[in-house]
Amino acid sequence: MNTRLPLVTILTLPLFANAEVTYHRDIAPIIYANCTGCHREGESGPFPLSTFEEVSRKAKTVERVIEDRYMPPWHASIEHVPFHDIRRLEKEEIERFGNWVTAGKPEGDPADAPPIPDFPEGWQLGEPDLVVTMAKAYEVPADGPDIYRNFVLPLDLPEDKWVKAVELRPSARSVLHHSLLFLDDSGTARSLDGKDGKPGFSGMGFRKSGSIGTYVPGATPRRLPGDLARPLPKGSDIVLSTHFHPSGKIEEEQTTLGIYFADSPPGRKLEELQVPPAFGRGAGIDIPAGESNYIVEDSFKIPVDYEAISVGGHAHYICETMLMTATLPDGGEKVLLEITDWDLDWQDTYYFAEPLILPAGTVIKSVITYDNSANNPDNPNTPPQRIKWGRESTDEMGSMTLIGVPVEAGDSRMLSRAAKLDQAKILAEVGKELINSRTAEKLPQIIKALDRDGDGNLHETELPPRMKSILLEKLDIDRDNSLNPSEIQTLKDWLENRKAKKEA
Amino acid sequence: MTILRTLLLSCVFVHCSVLDASEEKADSPVATVWIFVAVDCPIANGCAPEINSIYDDFHKRGIAFHLVYPEPSLTTEEITAHLEDYGFNMGFKHDIDHDYVKKAGVTITPEVAVFGGDGTLLYRGRINNRYSDYGDRRKAATEHYLRDCLGQLLTGEPVTFHENDAIGCYIEALSGN
């Protein structure tokens, strides 16, 4: 044995020397692939991470936030269906970074470093077809609670367009947390804009007529696959539904939005399957104070072959977990999205690496959990209070959304109809509100009185302002901004059934 | 107070990197607060309005305050711009050799250390509980550790050493340490 020891030592020494973790050889590849995209000049990261000096200066902070998986921001489990643009470190990479810090952050030989990727400056997808900027900057105060504010970007497009991708450039990246890009074809948002003396408006006092995407810092802008595109009808305004975090100093946000159009209308229409529908409006969300495991569940049977391209979720502060599964007609089960640590701050849309075919008869199910106890640091109330469904961020919502297209273009109508019928579930909730008010008793007379032109339809201009948005949102199935006799009848029938049941 | 003000003002413009243990005794007979900050830490910057508010409420009542920047590579211009951006009116120390870091035993920005008039460390930790973890920010703080400590000192209530873990960006050890 003694005679062999020197040989072993000689053989292992160079290996051991190579095993020392150095920045250029072992750490730079992790940083370039996962951090530098946002942590560089002009992007959303609060400090740059692209050189040895920059990473070394923040090494312990980086070590901690990657161990906690706070960074890179990515909340979907990756053990299930593969996604595009995954921003999640391997366990080995986290350990490697920790070893480098423990070893005293050795720099190593710059020649070992991979070339720094060519991160595009400015627009990530190239020059957009249309660039629009908020007319006036909105001042975000230095301190205080988070702010939710909507900003209208009037487009006045002379013709219908189709959107392949959007890219948003905030002017104050340290405060702009996310923007949801809704459409409003009624002019309501435009009329609300600036009414309180500041740019934009608060609350959701307009009826969303569509959506062209979302912006979350760190998410990679992506063109919809194939010939798919989102409709942007002429006459629509874009409403940037924006969430701000005050940063400690006064900041001014004046968002610029780049829009990339498709050359021609898509062959198949995107169909959104929201489970439960209407952001959980009809799911009866009513979470007692102190309840630590409140569960919302809903499912939807897809009636046609469906090609899913992305999945996401929406809830507010006290949501804890989200799970969307698909049970295929053959009994097989797929997890489409699992979020075990929901964070309102990082609402993302997750694109499947390959479009996912779900055969007709597949049942998609959402399970969303909430923690309304004092142990939840995200609880907006101290002490906890009962939380119901609502539009304010301190209310709750809960839904998961699958976006895709029917495999056969001809199935679009059937799929859309099934989704609308599912939405009709929420009538129960609306009806409950009406029947509990004096309005319910007088509904037939009210409808007659409202129908000023006597054509049997209730047009948007005939609806009472207070009820307009909710009535259109829930009852206007064909989305023509008026309630036709069959849509009014749906409500009447429901109320009559309800009344009959009550009397029985 | 004039001497104190002169001392504080001198530190705004003069590069202070050497810790003199007698200096903080001279700062205030009641208490001196060191607030460790960074120019690019979102949590430290997010606390700036509360730091300013605490300074406004307590410096006239005899408590001395210093912002301490432990990042050695900062330039005076960067520090001056940061003071201006976040509206800080108190003096600062650029702790190039980490003398203040070591004396206070801090590891994070933002983190505070409160010394009594005799130089005894009375409190070390977070300003309040607004941030409970990375990304977890309450609408408003429900525990005000620094304010409570200073209030007790002013009313003569007994203050025993107390500490908690700060949340924010780590102070990197100096190379060679």
Explain what the structure shows:
The complex is a heterodimer of chains A (504) and B (177). Chain A has four domains: 16-112, no CATH class; 130-261, Jelly Rolls (Sandwich), CATH 2.60.120.230; 271-422, Jelly Rolls (Sandwich); 437-503, Recoverin, domain 1 (Orthogonal Bundle). Chain A has 504 residues and is an alpha+beta fold. Chain A has a four-stranded antiparallel sheet with strand order 1-10-4-7, with no helix packed on it. Chain A has a four-stranded antiparallel sheet with strand order 3-8-5-6. Chain A contains twelve helices and 22 strands. In chain A, strand 15 (319-327) and strand 16 form a beta hairpin. In chain A, helix 4 (59-67) runs antiparallel to helix 5 (91-102). Chain B is an alpha/beta fold and 177 residues long. In chain B, 35% of the residues lie in helices and 22% in strands. In chain B, the strands form three sheets. Chain B has a six-stranded mixed sheet, with helices on both faces. In chain B, strands 4-10 form a two-stranded antiparallel sheet. A two-stranded antiparallel ribbon of chain B has the order 7-8. In chain B, strand 2 (63-69), helix 5 (76-85) and strand 3 form a beta-alpha-beta unit. Classes of the chains: A alpha+beta (504), B alpha/beta (177). At the A-B interface, helix 3 and helix 4 of A face helix 3, helix 4, strand 8 and strand 10 of B.
